[in-house]
Design a protein that fits this description.
Elements: H1 3-22, H2 32-39, H3 46-58, H4 65-88, H5 97-128, H6 135-156, H7 164-191, H8 219-227, E1 236-238, H9 249-254, E2 264-268, E3 271-274, E4 277-279, E5 286-289, E6 296-300, E7 316-318, E8 324-326, E9 329-332, E10 344-346, E11 351-354, E12 357-359, E13 365-366, E14 371-375, E15 378-381, E16 383-388, E17 391-395, E18 398-401, E19 410-415, E20 425-429, E21 432-434, E22 439-442, E23 450-454, E24 457-458, E25 480-484, E26 502-504, H10 508-512, H11 516-519, H12 535-547, H13 556-567, H14 573-583, H15 590-610, H16 614-617, H17 622-650, H18 657-680, H19 689-720, H20 723-736, H21 754-759, E27 769-771, H22 782-786, E28 797-801, E29 804-807, E30 810-812, E31 819-822, E32 829-833, E33 849-851, E34 857-859, E35 862-865, E36 877-879, E37 884-887, E38 890-892, E39 898-900, E40 904-908, E41 911-914, E42 916-921, E43 924-928, E44 931-934, E45 943-948, E46 958-962, E47 965-968, E48 981-984, E49 992-996, E50 999-1000, E51 1022-1026, E52 1044-1045, H23 1049-1052, H24 1057-1060, H25 1063-1066, H26 1195-1203
Parallel strand pairs: 1-2, 2-5, 3-6, 4-7, 5-8, 6-9, 7-10, 8-11, 9-12, 10-13, 11-14, 12-15, 13-16, 14-17, 15-18, 16-19, 17-20, 18-21, 19-22, 20-23, 21-24, 23-25, 25-26, 27-28, 28-31, 29-32, 30-33, 31-34, 32-35, 33-36, 34-37, 35-38, 36-39, 37-40, 38-41, 39-42, 40-43, 41-44, 42-45, 43-46, ...
Helix pairs in contact: 1-2, 1-3, 1-4, 1-7, 4-5, 4-7, 5-6, 6-7, 12-20, 13-14, 14-15, 15-17, 15-19, 17-18, 18-19
């Protein structure tokens, strides 16, 4: 274990001994050596602890607790400076503008931490030298608390980016964050026990001589605040009309002295100053004096939607110590639709604001860090409009709520205390809350959020429950919220929340802990408590301890053993062993071995195409030549997927393994699908060329399957060790499932303005390019326009395709990333073609539109293949791109209409029509609110909706159809008795389709499903129907195949959009209508139903649990804000809703769209759990269990092997 990694442990162990000594818990006559032995008692590797601890303390020369604490502070300060150097290097990378802002934020925030640690070290030196001052303790706690918060703010700046750079930055911050936390914990333990209540039980505030002001304010400053400008010495004057020394406040501050030890007063005359002011930490002891609220106004409109980090949206930011403001309005005019828009951000220690107005909507006052005081101020907003992690007291202030957006909930505070030892929180005293809409006092932004309201008037719109959850039960037991002697119609505590962390304060002694004299002078109000180790810490220590073995050289037997262990997880074990033996070069690093497996798969794919004799064989057959050309293209794509999987795995970070493994599995699955699609192209080619191609690809397909198996096994092992839940659970609270409010961020791949694109009508969009058949655009054809679009773009490109019928074959290749195509309605903007299998095209190449560029979005467009049923396979739309959205689109054809080929896809309010397998492929696709229209087939044909093509049990793919409608096209309706119609059939061995909460009209056969001709996949397929309605919904006569499952709701939940395709991360923030979980009330599990047991094949790509249920990893949905009211409860005999006269309006029920353009979708702030979202607070906790493997007895050793190289 590296010595630096022992520093937190050393400090903890040493100072715990000193803590015991200082409180008489050990004999003072005991030797220092015995104290070290006691500190190291009952820990792992005790000998190493004793040795390292002894040498560390001896090097400082003094055996005292203060000496050790000082050494720990110095070490932490050094680490913070190293972190700045490390993060500065990221500026040399090619990064986005938002990432540049975030990096600059991080550098400034770490600089804050360095200063705060240096101040703390200086105070510690005073304490060591015997200097006695009661404020020293308060200073140390305040500064260490602030230093601990700065790193979190740094990482929060990466909201709206793809998060990759954030992962590296977080790694650079982890050690310094842990060290600061350890020092703060140790200091509070040493100085906060035993707890002593104040002597005067009736004293709520400080002595009268201070007039309610903090003790650290000088008499002169108090006089400044009370007396006003008259008779005050002013150093400079700012006036818009030119009558002062400066016309701008920023210029006056720029020329003010730095690190001033005396008060420097800037008088700002009346006027509206449109400036963004950032007073850096070197601008100390500055006072801004205005002419009064509403007369001297500083205003700006920076906001998160413009691309700023929340930290940088502030109209005025104050960082220098000792800042004072009086008679000024701080305003941010961004408005509620712009989300975070800070009017005032305060990082200034011992700062004060008197008779000021702070105005905005969301995040108005950012009380970021350190000690702050607000007196007779007015603060207004909608969501979390007093937030941050400062130690702030608000006295005699007026708090006004403004009108929020529809569906938003108003919350006054969102305090961000992340550690129980931080001396931070909000204390609101003798104030007034005037709420014009239902309002909550606050919600917990971070785990140990702390807020108290005392002697405050609360109007009747303050809700009876008082407080609001951040989401679920997060922090309800660790927060500290209190109310004391409040009054007014909204002040009653009888119906307040019953959370463990909520307190009705009944005694003055407790209330006094939050007074000016006690709270922001750094006096702790609770005894220090220890922090329990989490599983993440255990794993981290295991990884670190394993690194020391790297000094030992590898040996052949060890390498062979490592290869055997890794290959035991695969389906093609012998091929795995042979391929790795030849390339391993005696390595025992399992991470390297898995990377070699990726490389082996890439090599075999390239060799298969390059050395194949198939090309010579098919030279004279046009279909064969086309099949081989397609195969070569698909092989390149498979190699691309393996390469990006290799690169992703090469930067493996256990902290982020959930998202990383999700990407790895979907990409490796794509590589498998591409190879299968290559072979599909040889259908109809004369001779045995197809079999030869299969033989050529055999080893490549086995190697790719093995790579997927290895990645899937990593997830299984970590889940079996509790890793999935414990390592990332805290992060998921704020990153993976952002609550609408502070963490209302965008998909990882979506820049800040794309959300607007999805909501606005075309005429309100900033269009990059227009295509119009009538010549009113730049181009008349789509293909001409595609040539102008930037390749591999990092920003969204908006292409408006005006009304018209475009007879084109459109290929959106893999370089056309982040393309957003918007039409004038799915029946007005139509892209049509007629390529088909019968006329010589392969199914893959028959698509009218093929989408291969990731992050593609289409809205209000119709895709058509008009070849007709006689032409057999004829694709209207093929989608081979990741993270794609289709909203209010039509896909019309007959056989094979929609080829949902690979990766993650989402379809909302779409209409898909066809006859046979008209939704097919091997993607992970979710369809919500879509209509499946069965069209008239040829005589003697049956109609089949789906044909899912999962070939490997570990692929995370399948089709989920939720709240969809299965019905006949009007032309086909009279003929449904003559043609049988089915829900689907298994195209491949592990075909997976889930149909839930959908309307099944009477054309669906009672058997429901049909076999694939000549194949028997009924044992291995996975089909589920859940909570459907309509004439064909009853399942009494369904096929009794082993693969058709009867599941309880908790196992079906894994196939909701939030869990199956991680939709809440990348769909919900776009504001496309989206249901994260179930839509209708979930029926209770029926004790009379025999549910299907969990078998290994069911869960190879999903977390599993014991017989009754499967592990559910996603917290409840709190983001959903449906554009229309939820649909009525389902019944088994209901009829489908009738469409309106206009047949294309997208909606959230089960009827087809009925409006030419998509509806305006509200951008919500805090959306409470909607009626369509179901949270089960009483559901039992489910523990993940690993899948059976060939080496279950050796799990721990293999887990260690996996992470030795991480």
């Amino acid at each position: 274990m590296a010595f630096t990694n022992l520093i937190p442990l050393i400090s903890t162990l040493l100072l715990s001994s000193f803590l015991l000594l200082s409180h008489g818990l050990i004999d003072q006559n005991q030797t220092f050596q015995s104290m070290i032995i006691q500190a190291c008692d009952k820990i792992n590797n005790q000998d190493s602890c004793l040795s390292n601890l002894q040498s560390h303390v001896e090097s400082h020369g003094h055996h005292t607790s203060l000496s050790v604490l000082r050494a720990a502070l110095q070490n932490t300060l050094n680490e913070a400076m190293k972190a700045i150097d490390s993060i500065t290097k990221f500026n040399t990378l090619s990064i986005s503008y938002r990432e540049q802002l975030a990096i600059n934020d991080c550098k400034e925030l770490l600089d804050f931490s360095v200063s705060e640690l240096a101040w703390s070290l200086s105070e510690m030196n005073k304490i060591r030298s015997g200097f006695k001052n009661p404020q020293l303790e308060g200073n140390l706690k305040a500064w260490l608390s602030a230093a601990l918060s700065n790193q979190d703010t740094c990482l929060e700046g990466f909201e709206g980016t793809d998060r990759r750079l954030e992962h590296f930055v977080k790694g650079s911050l982890e050690q310094v964050t842990q060290l600061i936390g350890n020092v703060l914990t140790l200091y509070t333990q040493m100085h906060s026990l035993p707890f002593r209540p104040p002597r005067n039980n009736n004293a709520t505030y400080t002595e009268n001589g201070n007039k309610g002001f903090p003790k650290w304010m000088s008499d002169g400053d108090k006089d400044f605040l009370v007396s006003g400008r008259k008779g005050m010495h002013v150093d400079s004057v700012v006036a818009l009309d030119g009558s002062g020394d400066y016309r701008s406040i920023g210029q006056a501050i720029y020329e003010a002295p730095t690190y001033s030890k005396r008060r420097y007063v800037i008088y700002v005359k009346k006027g509206v100053y449109q400036e963004n002011i950032d007073m850096k930490k070197k601008k100390t002891n500055i006072m801004l004096l205005g002419d009064g609220i509403g007369r001297t106004v500083i205003t700006g409109n920076r906001n998160f939607m413009q691309g700023w980090t929340t930290f940088r949206t502030a109209t005025v930011a104050v960082s220098g110590k000792g800042f004072i403001a009086r008679d000024i309005t701080f305003r941010n005019t961004a408005g509620p639709q712009s989300h975070q828009g800070v009017a005032l951000r305060v990082d200034s220690d011992q700062s004060a604001f008197y008779r000021c107005s702070i105005e905005g909507h969301q995040d108005t006052l950012y009380a970021h860090s350190l000690r702050q005081f607000y007196r007779e101020c007015t603060i207004s907003g909608t969501i979390d409009f007093i937030f941050g992690n400062g130690a702030a007291v608000l006295q005699n202030c007026k708090i006004f709520t403004l009108d929020p957006l529809p569906l938003q909930k108003i919350t006054i505070t969102a305090q961000g205390r992340k550690d129980p030892h931080q001396s931070t929180g909000f204390s609101i005293q003798d104030s007034y809350i005037y709420a014009n809409k239902p309002t909550y006092l606050g919600r917990p932004w971070k785990m140990y959020s702390r807020t108290v309201f005392m002697n405050t008037y609360m109007s009747k719109m303050v809700q009876p429950r008082g407080w609001l959850e951040w989401y679920g039960d997060f922090a309800l037991g660790t927060l500290w919220y209190g109310e004391y002697k409040n009054y007014g119609p909204g002040s009653s505590v009888s119906d307040r929340v019953r959370w463990p962390g909520y307190h009705v304060i009944s005694d003055a002694s407790t209330a006094s802990l939050f007074s000016v004299g006690r709270f922001i002078d750094g006096m702790s109000w609770l005894p220090g408590t220890g922090i329990r180790f989490s599983a993440a810490m255990v794993v981290a220590l295991t990884v670190t301890s394993l690194k020391k073995d790297k000094s030992k050289g590898p040996d052949v037997s060890a390498s062979q053993k490592a290869i055997t262990n890794i290959c035991q997880t695969t389906d093609y074990e012998q091929a795995c062993v042979e391929s790795l033996k030849s390339a391993a070069n005696d390595t025992t690093d399992p991470k390297k071995l898995i990377e070699l497996a990726f490389e082996a798969a890439m090599k075999h794919i390239n060799d298969a195409v390059k050395n194949s004799t198939v090309l010579e064989q098919v030279q004279k057959d046009q279909r064969g030549k086309a099949a081989f050309a397609t195969c070569r293209d698909l092989a390149n794509r498979a190699v691309h997927d393996l390469k990006r999987s290799f690169n992703k795995f090469n930067t493996f970070d256990i902290t982020y393994f959930d998202n990383m493994l999700s990407d790895l599995k979907i990409w490796l699955s794509g590589a498998i699908t591409y190879q299968e699609t290559c072979l599909d192209g040889f259908e109809g080619v004369p001779g045995d060329s197809g079999e030869k191609m299969r033989d050529a690809l055999k080893m490549a397909m086995e190697m790719t399957s093995n790579a997927l198996a290895m990645v899937a096994e990593i997830a299984t092992f970590l889940e079996s060790m509790g890793g999935s839940q414990n390592i990332t659970s805290r992060r998921l609270l704020s990153e993976r499932l952002p609550v609408m409010g502070h963490n209302d961020d965008f998909p990882d791949w979506m820049e800040f303005n794309k959300r607007k694109l999805l909501n606005a009508p075309p005429e309100h969009l900033k269009i990059d390019l227009i295509v119009a058949k009538d010549g009113s655009g730049k181009y008349r054809t789509i293909n001409e326009a595609l040539k102008e679009i930037p390749r591999n773009s990092n920003r969204t490109f908006v292409l408006h395709i005006k009304e018209g019928i475009y007879q084109e074959k459109v290929h959106i290749d893999s370089t056309l990333t982040k393309l957003f195509m918007i039409g004038d309605g799915p029946t007005k903007t139509r892209i049509t073609g007629k390529l088909n299998y019968k006329d010589g095209s392969s199914t893959f190449n028959s698509a009218t539109v093929a989408v291969e560029g990731d992050h593609f979005i289409a809205r209000d467009i119709g895709f058509e293949n008009s070849a007709g049923p006689i032409k057999e396979q004829a694709v209207a739309l093929r989608v081979s791109a990741d993270l794609v959205i289709f909203y209010n689109c039509h896909m019309d054809g007959y056989q094979d209409t929609l080829y949902a080929h690979t990766y993650r896809q989402y379809y909302r309010d779409c209409v898909i029509s066809g006859t046979i397998d008209f939704i097919f492929g091997d993607s992970a696709a979710v369809f919500q609110g879509c209509t499946l229209l069965f069209r008239k087939p040829l005589g003697g044909q049956e109609c089949i909706a789906t044909a899912q093509g999962r070939t490997n049990v570990r692929q995370p793919t399948g089709f989920v159809l939720q709240n969809c409608t299965f019905k006949a096209d009007p032309e086909f309706q009279p003929l449904t008795k003559h043609h049988k119609s089915y829900l689907g059939r298994p195209w491949r061995q592990f075909s997976r389709t889930i149909i839930m909460e959908s309307f099944l009209d009477d054309l669906i056969q009672p058997l429901g499903w049909v076999k694939w001709p000549g194949e028997s996949y009924i044992e291995t397929l996975f089909y589920v129907e859940f909570n459907n309605r309509g004439p064909a919904a009853p399942k009494a006569e369904r096929e009794k195949w082993p693969g058709i499952k009867e599941l309880p709701s908790n196992r079906v939940q894994r196939f909701t959009a939030a869990e199956f395709i991680d939709g809440t991360r990348w769909i919900a923030p776009t504001k496309v209508p989206y249901n994260a979980e179930f839509i209708f009330p979930v029926p209770k599990d029926d004790p009379n139903i025999k549910y299907s047991p969990v078998v290994p094949e069911e869960n190879k790509d999903l977390g599993s649990a014991k017989d009754k249920a499967a592990y559910v990893n996603t917290p409840p949905d709190v983001l959903e804000t449906p554009a229309t009211p939820p649909p009525p409860p389902p019944t088994t005999d209901s009829t489908p809703p009738q469409p309106s006269n206009n047949s294309e309006t997208p909606n959230t029920d089960n009827s087809p769209p009925s409006d030419e353009s998509s509806p305006s979708i509200p951008i919500s702030g805090i959306a409470g759990p909607p009626e369509t979202s179901h949270v089960y607070a009483d559901a039992p906790a489910l523990s993940p269990v690993s899948q059976p493997t060939k080496f279950t007895s050796n799990k721990l050793s293999v887990l260690k092997l996996y992470f030795r190289g991480v």
